[in-house]
Structures are given as C-alpha cells and as structure tokens.
Design goal:
The chain is an alpha/beta fold. Helix content is about 50%, strand content about 15%. Bound molecules: phosphoenolpyruvate and magnesium ion.
Length: about 550
C-alpha cells in the first residue's frame, strides 16, 4: 500500500514512529436496552465507574506532584472535580434509568453531551475543556465495560484526549481528530516531550489498530503506510533524541567549556516548574529568561501581587542559590491579554505607563526570588531612561535593602544602536534575537518560517551589542532562539556571548556542542561573516 499523509496542525514537536493505538472507534453493534428491573443496578455500576475514574485521576495527579510536575497535577485534578460533577452524574442516571442505556454507553453519551454544550458556549477556553470531559467519559465507560489498559505506548490516535490520558497512556506520539494547540493535553504533551498533531479530521479514525504509522509533530503529519525509508529515518530520529537526552543527563555536571578553554554559562528559558526541572537535569546553571507574561495571557486585569507570587514561587523555589533572571511583563504584540486589547506599546514601554503595576511586579519578584541569585530583566528596552526609571521604582520597593542586578533586553534595532548608553546603566545585557531579527528584517514573527539571524544586517547589531557589553565590562547573554540554533550558536559565542539561555529541552545539546567546539574557530567564522558584509553596513555598525 502506498504512503498516505494526513495533514493536521503541530501541537508538540518531534517525530514518533510505531504501532497505532486507536481509541474512540465507533461501536459497530447496537445492543438491546437494559431491562427496567436491572436499571437501578446498572446506574450503580455507572456511578462506581465514575468514582473509580476520579480516584485514578487523583492518583495520577499525586504522582505528578511527587515528581515536581505541579502544573500538570493541577490540570489533571480538574478531571477529579468533573467526575463528581452533579450535572454529569444526574445525566448518566437518567440515561440509564429512563432510557435504558448500558452504563458504558450512558457515560460516553453524557460526557459527549456536556462536552458539546461546552464547545457551543462560544468561549474558546471552555471549548478546549470539552476534550477533558470526553476523556473522562471514555475512561469511565471503559471501566464500566470491564477494565482499561494501563499503558499503551505506541502512537495514540483519538478524537480527543484529556491531560491524564497523556500521562497515563505514555504514548510515543499523539494524533487527534480534533483538539487545539492550547488544550490541556497539548500543554502536557509539550512539557513531557511527546510529539503531537491535532486537527487531523475524521480520516484519522480510519487508521487500523496496530498499523505502523509515523507521527511528525514538526510537520503536523500523520503518515499511514510509511515506506521503509521514512520509517527508518523516523526511528533513527527518535533513537537519537532519546540517546541525546540520556547523554545530556549523564553529563550534567561536566562544565560547558570549549576545547580551547572558553567557558560559557548555559542557562534555561522557562515559564514553568516542568521546564526548570528538565533544564536542571540537563545541566543548566540557572534561568536566563523567565517569561512572566506567559502566566497571565488570559488575564482580565493586571495580575495582583498575590497572583504573581503564586506563579513565580514554585518555579523559583526549584533554583534556590542559582541565577534566576526574571523578565518584567512583556505584554503587547502577540502577547496581549484581553485587558490590554487596543494598547499599542510593548514590553517596558507599556509597563512604565502603569508605574504602580511595575512596583507590584517588582515586589512580587523580590518576595518569590529571595533565595535565588536574582536578576531582573527589562523587555523591549529602547533607551537608557527606561532602565533608570525601573531602577528608581526598584529602589522605592527595596526601601534601602540591597537589590538584584538589573539587565536590559537588546531586541530592537533602536536598542542595539544605543547599546553603549544602555550598557552603561545596566548590570548585564541580554540579546533577544527573535524580535531583533524580525524587526531588523521586517518579517512577521508569527507567520515567518525562518529567522535568519546570521543576515549581516542583524549580525552587525549583535556585534555592536557585544562590543558595548565588553566596553562597559558587563556580561552579554543571548536568550533568543539563536542561542541554540546549530548554525547561529557558534557565531554568538564567536562574537563574544558570555551566556546562552535556551529552551529547557535544548540545554544538554547546547552544552555538548560547546564542549565539542573551538572558540578560535567560532571567532574566525563570526569575523568572516562580519567581513563579508557590505562596506557601508560594516561602517554604520561601529
Ligand atoms: C526574543 O525576542 O528573542 C526573546 C527572547 O523574547 P521573546 O521571544 O519572549 O519575545
Ligand atoms: Mg522578545
């Protein structure tokens, strides 16, 4: 049979190959209804199945909590509440007692009905929770029908999946008919490193149980009947990823020093406990970029002091004694919460328009990060005055106590052009190569498939920033994707980066590539690229 690729949307990266495990296949045979006299007992079985499911979910949540995955545990625990929800319980009751449905059918039907109602409310967040209800219904129905497989492995193919299924079934990949990239199941899959594709449509349910498939979470594809070559490539990809992770963990204490002796500090970009744990298992020396705004993208008002402390504390508690670079709220652009719709500013410009909110955040960071080597990072800086204003607010909040270091993100062309002035009022600089590249080259950050950071127009601004940092004798960090990109990372080091801050899953790989490389070669390569640039561009950047 020839290859057939079903196209969906990538929800978690990576490639998995293996046998398909298909859930949600429609039941072919209609069964006779339950006799009136037996309906009471059948309703009891349905209730017991719901209780068993609730207890299972509670167990999964506590296992997650024990392994430090509090965020995922919170998500799974919402399923425990759903299992006891009175609307669900009474709907199941009436489907059995009045309509004579069997317990498993009643559970699946009731969950489906409630999920459909949720999806129809017009609230995208509630619509995504519909998947969690369906997943609970399926779990309970499986219990009522006489048991449930504990672990499946393989590539899971389903209509929808709840977060607990992702944890419990331990699939190597996930293919969903529906689902969304921000659904709970997708959040959990990403943090556990399980490739996932959503929105594949009903064709995905035609996949046979046990059929060999490839799930390509990078390209958003589910490939049926893959040819031998593709299968082999996918298997090799998976093996490589697993081996690299094992090696990274085994070498977590080996410093990231090039063969000719240049030591680079490798930190992690993180916004959750899971990422901080993964990063530290791969040898990260702390956090170089904590994106605080990611905790509040659904907010309907500026987050309170308490909410910010609650978001930051579990993350920062994991890196006591290590560098913790907490970035001030970088709202605006593609990170605009509902309460800021219509605002035109971005990053620090926006925050400085609400000085009381800036002080609230600074106070929350100081409380939550008290036991860390705290650094505060200012997003989207364009001039030195902004840095001084943040320092003034910080002094007010500190009231004479010693305070953390204050660093500036250099991620706009304006900031790179004024890097010297900004460096003089900063304790460190951090190059945001994602925004810098897009802004310099006029690309759309969400649509653009490439971010050519090694374009000479971008490189000359990075070079100018590194020079400014050296002149001011302060460290320069790179925290955009260029810090882990195979081509750009050596160039960043060659230009003089002291620290790289990279996605948690990339920490070990970046540290290894530093150990395998030569600073002199990195430097020669970066100088060559700078010399390659047109004379007028080189002239302007110095
Ligand atoms: C960047 O722009 O490179 C950066 C690290 O910031 P963010 O990706 O959060 O905008
Ligand atoms: Mg940025």
């Amino acid at each position: 049979m020839s290859e057939q690729a079903l196209r969906g949307v990538s929800a978690a990266p990576g490639i998995a190959s293996g046998k398909a495990v298909v859930l949600d296949r429609p039941r072919p045979l209609a069964r006779a209804g339950v006799a009136r006299a037996a309906r009471g007992r059948e309703a009891g079985r349905a209730k017991a199945a719901l209780e068993t499911s609730g207890a299972e979910l509670r167990d999964i949540a506590s296992r997650l909590r024990e392994s430090g995955r509090d965020d995922e545990a919170d998500i799974v625990e919402t399923g425990v509440l759903m299992a006891a929800d009175s609307t669900l319980v009474s709907l199941v009751d009436s489907l059995v007692l009045e309509s004579g449905l069997h317990a498993d059918a009643a559970l699946a039907k009731a969950a489906d009905q409630i999920a459909t109602d949720l999806a129809n409310l017009g609230d995208p967040t509630l619509a995504l929770r519909a998947d969690d209800v369906r997943s609970l219904g399926r779990r309970a129905a499986a219990h009522a029908a006489g048991g449930r497989a504990a672990t499946v492995g393989g590539v899971l193919v389903a209509k929808a999946l709840g977060p607990a299924d992702v944890v419990e079934l331990s699939p190597t990949g996930i293919a969903l008919v529906g689902g969304g990239v921000t659904a709970h199941a997708a959040i959990v899959a990403r943090s556990l490193g399980i490739p996932m594709v959503v929105g594949l449509g009903d064709d995905a349910l035609e996949v046979e149980d046990g059929e060999g498939v490839i799930l390509d979470g990078d390209a958003g594809l589910l490939v049926r009947h893959p040819d031998a070559k593709r299968m082999e490539a996918a298997r090799a990809h998976g093996d490589q990823r697993r081996a690299a992770r094992e090696t990274a963990r085994a070498r977590r204490l080996v410093p990231a020093v090039t063969r000719d002796g240049r030591r680079i500090t490798v930190l992690a970009n993180a916004a959750s406990v899971v990422e901080v744990i993964e990063a530290s298992e791969q040898g990260a020396e702390g956090v170089g970029l904590l994106r605080t705004e990611l905790g509040f993208l659904d907010a309907h008002a500026w987050p309170s002091f308490e909410k910010q402390v609650a978001f930051l504390s579990p993350i920062l508690a994991r890196i006591a004694g290590q560098v913790a670079t907490v970035r001030l709220l970088d709202f605006g652009g593609d990170k605009t919460p509902p309460f800021l719709h219509g605002a035109t500013g971005r990053g620090i410009e926006l925050l400085l328009e609400s000085p009381a909110q800036l002080r609230t955040q600074l106070a929350a960071i100081l409380v939550a990060g008290g036991k860390t080597g705290l650094r505060i990072l200012i997003p989207m800086v364009t001039n030195p005055l902004q840095v001084n204003l943040v320092r003034e607010s910080l002094e007010e909040v500190l009231g004479g106590r010693p305070g953390p270091q204050v660093g500036s993100m250099i991620e706009t062309p304006e900031a790179a052009q004024r890097a010297g002035e900004i460096a003089r009022v900063s304790d460190f600089l951090s190059l945001g190569t994602n925004d810098l590249t897009q802004l310099v080259l006029g690309l759309d950050r969400e649509q653009s498939k490439t971010a050519p950071v090694t374009d000479t127009r971008v490189l000359r601004l990075i070079d100018a920033t590194m020079r400014a940092g050296r002149a001011a004798r302060i460290p320069v960090d790179v925290c955009g994707e260029a810090a882990s990109d195979a081509v750009a990372m050596p160039i960043m080091i060659g230009l003089g980066a002291d620290e790289l801050s990279v996605a948690a899953a990339r920490v070990g790989d970046v540290r290894q590539r530093i150990r395998d490389g030569d600073f002199a070669a990195f430097r020669a390569e970066s100088e060559k690229l700078l010399l390659d640039q047109p004379a007028d561009a080189a002239g302007k950047s110095r």
